[in-house]
Amino acid sequence: MKRILLPAPTRRDLLNLDDPRIAKRYELLETEQPGVDGVFGSNDSTASLAATVADRLGLPGPGYEAFMRCHDKLAARIVQARTVPEATPDFAPLDPHARSAPLAYPFFVKPVMGHLSQHARRVDNDGDLREALGTARAGGFSRLIAEELLDGPLVTFEGFMHHGRMTTVGVTDAVMHENGISFVRFEYPTRLDPATVRRMETVARRLMPALGFDGSLFNIEFFVDAGGRPWIVEVNGRISSQFGPLVRAVHGVSSYELALELSTGRRPRVPRPRPGVVAASFLIRTYQDAIVRSVPDPTQVLRQFPGSTIELLVRPGQRLSENDDDLVSHRLAVVSLAGHDREQLVADFHQARAVVPFELEPLKAVARSRTPSSTRVRVQP
Fold first, then answer.
1. Domains present along the chain, CATH in parentheses
2. pLDDT tens digits, 36-75
3. Which terminus of the chain is more exposed, N or C, with fewer CB under 10 A?
4. Which string of b and e fits 111-147 if b means at least 16 CB within 10 Å?
């Protein structure tokens, strides 16, 4: 049994690692001990910490420098432009104090170091640019990047590198809110045709070695234009943790298990997709800031939909804007479901959402009165 160190595991990690297949093969440790075989982290902060610890202990991993080369959007773009120019949009560094636009309008602005669409927005004119830069400065972002505006379906390609060889896990489709920023759900496997997926594989096979990346899962977000040409949005040198339950439902093996195997230096095997099985990860959101007064008990949904998972992202007493979210919405929970029909999954999610109500108190009500019982509202986003 291999021993894996988990520095600061998240609630999502613990939810996904509670898996009989994983329990049979790995001893998971939250504190450093002698005889560790690997180190694993799932998000930007814990994956960078895992890469650092693995480097120090001489254990397998992508290496901290390679991980950060992916995470730094400007550094990654420079490598992309040199290695896969056909998949790299136009871009330019953007100073938060800039007085002029570095690209022709419209374009997209985001922090060089950011996640979950933090402070990412479309800029159409000088006024938008001043507002975007002011918001970035207020948020403490000192390095920004401007990028050519992309269009088409947004997807996530997930794969892994092992001894210089790239292996595909799969491609997940994003369904966006009409605001163009917030995600409504993710569906797996993709609806895209095999030829488009092969183009993504070609890009990944050339790009990841050029980034110096090996020995770990990674994911690349792409927009796909009307001609089926993939354009890189960003590269992440880590697992797509939200998609873990989807990979497990379709392949029978969680991407968490694949990542643990890689962390010990071994090449995992990705089983073929189960015929006719689809899975989706849904976001429960609200579009105004509030104080959380109560959160639901998810057990009723777990009983009604066997094999589902629910991850609560907020806690009672919390202000929603305390979380890292996009500029226009706040995530309350993630619900993952699997079945044989995508449309039925959407219907199942609406049933599940109906029995997981969140009690949220609008901020104006909080400011107006300290007797909130008369102003509380029950919200089911």
1. 2-66 (no CATH), 90-148 (3.30.1490), 278-379 (3.90.1170)
2. 999 999 999 999 999 999 999 999 999 999 999 999 999 9
3. N
4. bbbbeebbbbbebeeeebbeebbeebeeeebebbbbb
